[in-house]
Amino acid sequence: MRVLRTLDVRERPVSSVVTIGNFDGVHLGHKRIIGRVKELSKEIYGQAVLITFDPHPVSVLRAEGVRIITPLPLKMGLLEKEGIDLLLLLPFDETTRLMEPEAFVKILVERLCMRAIVVGSDFRFGRERRGDVSMLTQLATNLGFRLVLVENVEIEGERVGSQRIRQMLAEGEVRRARRFLGRPYEIYGRVVKGRKREIGFKTANIFTDFDIIPRDGVYITELAVGSQRFESVTNIGKNPTFGEDSLSIETHILDFSGDLYDREVGLFFLDRIRDEIAFEDVSSLKAQIETDIEVARAYFRGLKDSLGLLYN
Questions:
Q1: Cα 142–chain centre separation
Q2: DSSP code for 15
Q3: Helix-strand-coil percent breakdown of the chain, rounded to 5?
Q4: CA 235 to CA 82: how far, in whole Å?
Q5: 292-301 contacts: CB < 8 A, separation 24 or more?
Q6: In this structure, are residues 2 and 98 in contact, taking their beta carbons and an 8 Å threshold?
Q7: What's the DSSP call for residue 5?
Q8: Measured between alpha carbons, how far is 185 from 26 in angstroms, rounded to an integer?
């Protein structure tokens, strides 16, 4: 995947199919659009082009900003896996914000040899979001490109969208978020030293700068270290049993005794076990952790049994 941070494209494609958007999360709705872009680009022997923005426009336009599901490096990696040929990563600066939608589309036709554009039915773009599907329909006729509209993806009657996924993660609904994303929600960070507590369960304490951490509670997770992934249980919260008040992410890896201190890791959220609880004493906490671990073991056994049924 080639990445450019400007519309001044020197090595112009012979022809291209383009889509535009924030693509935060790279969820199933996004994947449907990208899939159509790839199909059409193959039909015309052109390039599949995706245009997105950094920073996220909402973080510039609204004081409250927006919590990002997939920070830029992760989003770029996911888009490359989806098979995008050219990623235009445009700075959302004053020039971009004030660009008229008609002028923007003309640039795409002239500099990218755009033969088709693929968007959702509610797509808006350009200065003050004046550009919409109606404008694109007229521009397609005037400038000689094809407009392709893609229907929303719905799961159980609910539209798949980035804002809804943010809400799910805030509520700890990681299993449902996984369905909307088409993969587990993931964060990345570094293993740091945590507070020493003699409770008999070794944990990796993860520091991350990701915007979205699922709601406090205990989760079934997988921890990625390099190319390896380990079954694990993760507690997110403030450890009320010990009277602490700072948020921590503590992961216990099943059947693992190595040292991960200062290692970069990824954490994949598969399901939620329970809320975080303040226990009366440490022995009660230990008993609950043992139960949580057994719940996780049963979950992973179930996954393996399901895979066995699929491949036998």
A1: 36
A2: S
A3: 35, 30, 35
A4: 32
A5: 292/218, 292/233, 293/233, 293/252, 293/254, 295/220, 296/220, 296/231, 296/232, 296/233, 296/254, 297/231, 297/254, 299/220, 299/270, 299/271, 300/220, 300/231, 300/254
A6: no
A7: S
A8: 11
Structure tokens at 138: 């007229």
Query: Does the bond joining 55 to the residue before it have cis omega, within 30 degrees of 0?
Result: yes
Q: Determine the Cα–Cα distance for residues 110 and 149; give it in Å rounded to an integer.
A: 22
Q: What is the DSSP letter of 279?
A: -
Phi, psi of 258 (to 5 degrees): -75, 175
Query: How does pLDDT run along the chain (312 residues), one tens digit per residue?
Result: 999 999 888 888 999 999 999 999 999 999 999 999 999 999 999 999 999 999 998 888 887 889 999 999 999 999 999 999 999 999 998 888 899 999 999 999 999 999 999 999 999 999 989 999 999 999 999 999 999 999 999 999 999 999 999 999 999 999 999 999 999 999 999 999 876 666 778 899 999 999 999 999 999 999 999 999 999 999 999 876 555 667 899 999 999 988 899 999 999 999 999 998 877 778 888 899 999 999 999 999 987 665 454 443
Backbone angles phi, psi at 134, to 5 degrees: -60, -45
3-class DSSP assignment, residue 214: coil
Could you identify the residue written with the tokens 């923007």?
104
* In contact, 265 and 189? CB cutoff 8 Å: yes
Our measurement of the distance from residue 103's CA atom to the centroid of its chain's CA atoms, rounded to an integer in Å, reads 31
Please name which of 53, 56, 68, 44 lies closest in space to residue 19, comparing C-alpha atoms.
53
Contacts of residue 92, defined as CB under 8 A and 6 or more positions apart, other chains included, come to: 53, 54, 55, 56, 57, 60
- Nearest alpha carbon to residue 116 among 22, 53, 36: 36
Sorted by where each starts, the structural domains of the chain and their CATH numbers stand as: 2-155 (3.40.50.620), 184-311 (2.40.30.30)
DSSP three-state, residue 160? coil
Tell me the whole-structure pTM to 2 decimals. 0.91
